[in-house]
Amino acid sequence: MLIFSELISGLTATGGTDINMGLSFGFEEISRHGDRYHVNQVFLFSDGNPTSGEQNWNKIRHNISKKATDTKLSVFAFGTDANIRELNALAGVTGGTYTFVTQANDVRLALNEELKRRDKVAAINVQMQIVIKPDIDILHFYGHDLVTDPATRAAVLDKVQATAEKAEREYGVESEEDLVSKDNGIRVFVPNLAVGDTYWVVFELATPQGSDLESFGDATVQYVDTLARQTQKQTLPLELKGKIPPKIVAEHGIGLWTSEVTFYAIDDLYERDTSTFRKRLTNHLKVLENVGYSLGSSYLADDRIVLNKFLSLAENLGKQQVSSDVEYPKPQQMTLLRMNAFGRLRNGFVQRVNQ
Question: Residue 252 and residue 247: Cα distance in Å, rounded?
Fold first, then answer.
């Protein structure tokens, strides 16, 4: 860890910015030196847009999605010139993380969190197919976006194929027929999960009034078990009388909703629309207060406190600062940094970190 920190501290920026080429080289080095029993990671530090080589972000994402296979990309964005949206999307293509940096300690803390993560891969090529009965309306699928763009869909399927090839090459296991390429149901692809990782799937459904249903539908999950060196596949009925306590389901669902509200509020700040930012958070705070009180949830009460702090930080946006404050992050940078971290915490994917 010390050697790694010294390498990072010694980095200097020179010349143009060829993000596509730099990342391509990084992923190629992973393919040469990577260990199939560990999580492989590439880190990108960027303060702007590509200025050399391939400069089309869509093409860069497509290229990286093909090269990443089971390697994750962690992105650190610096300064006001950094293309926040594109860098965040680039990390998302590989299932990696994104961090907006305001000071050196942010990088150190984020890297420590990444490196302390349990590095044993438990499953790769994780695919889910969720079929909800036709007379039930799907109101919302929290933490996920529908992929309709042909280029993005093709990139995802390319990555699925590459991951399956990796499983056969590295673990000697042939994956089951793809679920994500089927036409029916909702399909979800997760490149890999390490020991202790948790992936939440939370829906909001509306059932017909007076209906006598035994289940909402079925969920099929399949993956390559890297420890047993075999495929695992299971179909589970989505029963009305689930085994998870309703309070936990509600807390997770509201948590994912809070994540989405947080990221929309971040967009408001990027647009310098502080009025909408305040209204959005204030409205959601009322929801957290009412639901949290009904459930008696300390979890939601904590979220309410955090959002209130964000509102307090927002009050300083655009205000004059005294010279003694220059060593600290600007209010907008601090607000964006903390909201990004909070939004990721509630967005449905939690990595286990050794304390």
Answer: 9
- Structure-derived torsion over alpha carbons of residues 52, 53, 56, 60, reported in degrees to the nearest 10: -120
Answer yes or no: are the C-beta atoms of 70 and 191 closer than 8 Å: yes
Query: Under DSSP, is residue 130 helix (H, G, I), strand (E, B) or coil?
Result: strand
Q: Compute the CA torsion angle 52, 54, 55, 57 (nearest 10 deg).
A: -140
**8-state DSSP, 330:** P
**Amino acid 232: pLDDT:** 93
Locate the domains of the chain by residue range.
2-119, 121-239, 246-349
The CA distance from 283 to 271, in Å, is 19
Distance CA 126, CA 219 (A): 13
Which residue matches tokens 């997770």? 252
Check residue 35 and give its pLDDT: 64
Q: How far apart, in whole angstroms, are the C-alpha atoms of residue 335 and residue 231? A: 44
Helices (H), the chain: 2-9, 19-33, 57-68, 84-93, 104-116, 150-171, 246-270, 274-295, 298-314, 331-345
Maximum CA extent, the chain: 67
Report the CATH superfamily, name and number, of domain 2-119.
von Willebrand factor, type A domain (3.40.50.410)
Could you give the C-alpha distances from 178 to 135, 187, 245, 331, in angstroms and in order? 26, 10, 32, 47
71-78 and 98-101 strand pairing? parallel
Q: Residue 104 pLDDT > 70, yes or no?
A: no
Here the tokens at position 126 are 């994780």
Cβ count near 30 (within 10 Å) = 18
**Residue 11 has which token pair?**
């980095």
Most confidently modeled range among 80-84, 139-143, 185-189, 301-305: 185-189
Instruction: Tell me the whole-structure pTM to 2 decimals.
Output: 0.49
Return the structure tokens found at 351: 């990595």
Q: Which residues contact 126 (CB under 8 A, 6 or more apart)?
A: 189, 190, 191, 192, 193, 199, 221, 222, 223
Task: Go through the chain and tell me how many residues it has.
Answer: 355
